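Why do we care about 3D structure at all? Because function follows from shape, and shape follows, mostly, from sequence. That is the central idea of this module. The next example makes it concrete: a single protein chain, its amino acid sequence, and then its structure expressed as tokens.
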Amino acid sequence: MIFKRIQLGLIHVAVAMTLVPINSTLNRVMIKDLGISATLVAVLASLPYLISPIQVAIGSFADRHAVFGLQRTPYIALGLLLCVTGVILSPYAAFLIVDDFWIGLVVGLIAFGSWGMGYNLSAVSYMSLASEISGEKGRSRTIAIMFTMMIVGIILTSIALSNMVDPYSPQALISAFRVIGLIALVLGMLGLVRLENRHARNDLPASDNYTWAEMLHQVAGNRQVKTFFIYLIILLAAILGQDILLEPFAAEAFAMTVQSTTRITSIWGTCFLVAMVIAGMLEGRVQKLTLARLGGWNALVGFVLIAASGLLSSPAIFYTGLVVLGIGTGLSTVSNLSLMLDMTTAGKVGLYIGIWGMANAISRLLGSLIGGVLRDTLTYMFQDPVVAYVTVFTGMVLLMLISLWILSRIDVSLFRKQSESQLGVLERATLVD
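And the structure:
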């Protein structure tokens, strides 16, 4: 079983590897070096989350249409190919936008759209496969291994990428993206070898697939679910909304090279991994809500320090803020994942996991778009991009404060009572029918 978990982890790593060049390097080059609107970059980067509702259709289609008895493998392979295609095409799109905006925009939509479609196609398939292979009891261990391998993969990819773009040139960037894409393809395909058992046509397991309308109906019917849903959106919009802004900010405020800003991801990832280990050690000793609050406050302080570093022109304060933010993000992620598992109802695990996944997609979409639009608008108003970035990071501090206030209103025991009440109503309605 451990070998299959490692294979699943390799697929998770492969998909994440294709995102690192886009999130840690290309956004900086597009915004700072090429002068492309941060709003446009945010729109392109948000395409995967804009089309994420398609995951439901993909999952349902895969349930009904196996290829040579394989229900998940073909869709994972196709998704990975699309991710690799997207990451290889993306730097060409960036340079074309400057030379010929409309042609570049079309290529950009193809590149980022390919990555987005590939991510949605592969993610829903390999997570379904992970669930099927592990069973209910082994699911959490499988996810932990996959998640840890992904973070390590992101750190190593960021370090390798920073070395490949030093010294920076457009050709070095294109070459580096191609190498990362091909390595990801090889790792992903290795992970797929004999991973899934072939099924007879009448022996295909069905995954839990729910439409966004069904999930939103469940959110509206339980006040605690609604509170936790809103909390996740606001928290993640702040924590993940900085993805496209942190590297361009460092380049603008401290004149960091492409190599230096690319390594920001490896520093953040290392701190995230350390925080995960700390959270694992504290599990059972510290309440999950307390750990979530600790992670939230750490992330808030990280944003305060990053904003202050811009005002004081201090790289040392920036790196301190980056470390604190990474630790806060790690603590917050582990504790909130545990809370998610607590905020589920027996027999509806797939539904609730879908709801929390939907919150993640919405938050990433809102965080990226709001961050990009505010950065451009404030830069135009103040005629100073550093002041614009500082203002955006200050806004993220406010979002963190709001999320912490909402977190104080979450009660897991009350959620269970409301869920039991809902279940009782449904059972009575069934008896009447």
